[in-house]
Amino acid sequence: MNLEPKPELEAFRQEVAEFLDTAPTDVIREAGRKTTSVFAPFDATMAWQKILNGKGWAAPEWPVEHGGTGWSAEERFVFAEEYCKRNLPPLLPNCLKMIGPLIIDLGTEEQKARYLPRILAGDDYWTQGYSEPEAGSDLASLTCSAVADGDDYIINGSKTWTTLAHRANRMFMLVRTSSEGRKQQGITFLLLDRVDYPGMEIRPIVGLDGFPEQCEVFFDDVRVPQSGRVGAENEGWTVAKHLLKYERGSSSQAPWLYRFVRMIREAAATRTSPFGGTLAQDPVFQRELGELEADVASVEAVEKLAVSGHPLAHDLAFPSFNKTVGTELIQRLTSLMARVSGLEGLSLQLQALTVGGGTAPLGDGFDLIAMPYYLNSRAASIYAGTNEVQRDLIARSLMSR
Ligand SMILES: Cc1cc2nc3c(=O)[nH]c(=O)nc-3n(C[C@H](O)[C@H](O)[C@H](O)COP(=O)(O)OP(=O)(O)OC[C@H]3O[C@@H](n4cnc5c(N)ncnc54)[C@H](O)[C@@H]3O)c2cc1C
């Protein structure tokens, strides 16, 4: 398998580079520099999505007939590489990478026509209402109920960890519509047109990094139309599993991981080692960053195999493998970031981190983001299914061969 750069991709790389060098506004670049989570600063990132959509590049993974680019997997990888090199804010994943592809695969024609163009254009933001206080890894235990009433459902219960629900205008969620049979059998998948239905309340949760990124959502006799259902009533478990494949599996983590390596290397060149010289010259530091970079290179090799058509891309365990390895590397990389920043990074500078806030940071841009990134990324091995559960899935897939 040849993993060398292909000359025929170079013209494409040039075209992408030229656009990404010129299209983003200063505010969008600032949002990229101030990204400290998978969820980049909301307003600037949605504005950037609109610009990308104007070029037809908001959703490279989508089929062409729904607004995708028609790029090959290798072209998509090149795009991700050029994107991450420029430190641009990652587009928010819930819409383009999760609910959009799900509606394309399983939605009705009406749902496709109604939602897909607005998702692409960044006009809607969808929050994900799966988890509940007593239903996380064991999602099938969920109790938030929906009872049919005429053309509507009436929802009661609560959801938790619903990321950016306070910024969303729509929500996709799982509800219990039956308690008969196995607990997986009584679940239904719903698209909610609004997050301000009467009886619905959203309460933000402030995270370790000081930002309210997640929320709790409460439902008290909330009436929603049944036309928002995806799939049949009580068959939402299959729909939810279909979506998880998109949530966990991304074929281009390496470009994103290299972005951390570059940030750390640049910062280390400007800091002094306690043993003399710069930190970048320190052999202990070099070894640690070298080991991390070697692990990122391994991820890159696997991902390049996958995009060049290797069967592993279709292996059931691949999304779980990708999620586990990628999130653990992010945690190791952000841990090194926090240590490189040291005392300079100890103060959480929420005002300076606000895009367009105009407050200058103490220290430099690296010190500004190192600690919040470290703190935020502690959750990476929990969300989208904990890494322990992913390891179970990988083992089950391997042992069933
Ligand atoms: C930052 C963040 C953002 C999130 N965003 C969203 C969102 O937008 N929408 C949404 O619906 N949910 C979201 N979640 C919820 C997330 O999916 C759950 O936290 C996750 O599934 C784990 O569930 P839990 O927190 O209930 O932990 P539990 O399921 O209670 O797990 C506790 C511990 O037990 C372990 N464990 C549980 N079962 C097994 C098993 N079978 N084998 C081995 N170990 C096991 C777990 O790995 C973990 O270490 C988010 C969570 C976080 C932290």
Structural summary, described in words:
This protein has 401 residues and is α+β, with helices and mostly antiparallel strands. It is 46% helix and 13% strand. The strands form two sheets. It has a four-stranded mixed β-sheet with strand order 1-4-5-8. The two termini are 24 Å apart. The mean pLDDT is 94. Belongs to the acyl-CoA dehydrogenase family.
Largest sheet: 4 strands, mixed
What ions, cofactors and ligands are bound? Answer: flavin-adenine dinucleotide
Summarize the helix and strand pattern as letters: HHHHHHEEEEEEEEHHHHHHH
Calculate the mean pLDDT score and round it.
Answer: 94
Rg, rounded, reads 22 Å
Number of domains: 3
Gross morphology is globular
Named CATH topology of the largest domain: Butyryl-CoA Dehydrogenase, subunit A, domain 3
Record the strand order, biggest sheet.
1-4-5-8
Helix content: 40-55%
CATH superfamily of the largest domain: Butyryl-CoA Dehydrogenase, subunit A, domain 3
Which class of secondary structure composition applies to the elements?
Answer: alpha+beta
What's the count of strands?
8
Quaternary arrangement of the chains shown? single chain
CATH architectural designation of the largest domain: Up-down Bundle
Rounded to the nearest angstrom, the distance between the terminal CA atoms is 24 Å
Note the total helix count: 13
Beta-strand content:
5-15%
CATH class of the largest domain: Mainly Alpha
Low-pLDDT parts are: none
